[in-house]
Structures are given as C-alpha cells and as structure tokens.
Amino acid sequence: MNAREARRMAAGMAAGEKDEMTVKELRELLSEYEDDRVVVLASDAEGNNYSPCCGGWSGSYLAYSTWSGEMGLEKLTDEDREAGYSEEDVINGVPALCLRPVN
C-alpha cells in the first residue's frame, strides 16, 4: 500500500472516489475553455465562497485528511535560506501545485 492509498483508507474513502486533481487533469480541463476566462477558486466543495486565483507555487503537500493538509517546501535551496526559510519548512509529502486565491 502506498502513501496515497493509506491516506484514503484513513479518511474512509472508497478506492474509486476521486480526492485530488493532477496537473495533467487540470490542463485537460483548462483546454476546454478560452484563454481569457478568469480562474476562480471555491473555498469549499459546497461552493459557499469564491475568490479569483491570483497565482501559485509548487511545493510539497501533506494531507491530514481528504479536505485538509499542509503545503511546504520540497527541498531547501540557498535561495530559500536567503528568503528566511529553514529545514522546518520542508515537508515530506507529495509534489504539488498550490493555486492561491486573492483572499
């Protein structure tokens, strides 16, 4: 059993349920729309609040559940150290892309 399967089991998810999207799947979804369409993020699965996407960054994601987790650095570079990051900011998770909402 890999780490993803263990997270899914701990969260009580069935094997066929979808809990995350890959960059490949996001590209496929985005290819269906015009390039000038605004990207908006929902604050939750029920769509209670929305905010425009204003950027993103890549790092490491460690899921605590199917709906919550932590993002951090995949590795600490000299540039990261100069920006004030330390080994404590490195997370042993899966490579991820984090899209950032305006608010």
Which spans of ≥5 residues are poorly predicted at pLDDT below 50?
none
Q: How many whole angstroms does the radius of gyration measure?
A: 16 Å
Average pLDDT level: 86
Give the distance, in angstroms, between the N- and C-terminal Cα atoms.
37 Å
Order of helices and strands: HHEEEHE
* Share in β-strands: 25-35%
Structural class: alpha+beta
Q: Looking at the structure, what is the overall shape?
A: globular
User: How many distinct beta strands?
Assistant: 4
Q: What fraction, in percent, of the residue positions are helical?
A: 10-25%
Structure annotation, total helices? 3
Q: Tell me the major beta sheet.
A: 4 strands, antiparallel
What does this structure look like?
With 103 residues, this protein is an alpha+beta fold. The protein has a domain at 54-103. 20% of the residues lie in helices and 28% in strands. The chain has three helices and four strands, in the order ααβββαβ. It has helices at residues 3-10, 23-30, 78-82, and strands spanning 40-42, 50-63, 69-72, 94-101. Strands 1, 2, 3 and 4 form a four-stranded antiparallel β-sheet that branches. A hairpin with a 5-residue loop joins strand 2 (50-63) and strand 3. The longest helix is centred in the first third of the chain and has 8 residues, at 3-10. The model has no long low-confidence stretch (mean pLDDT 86).
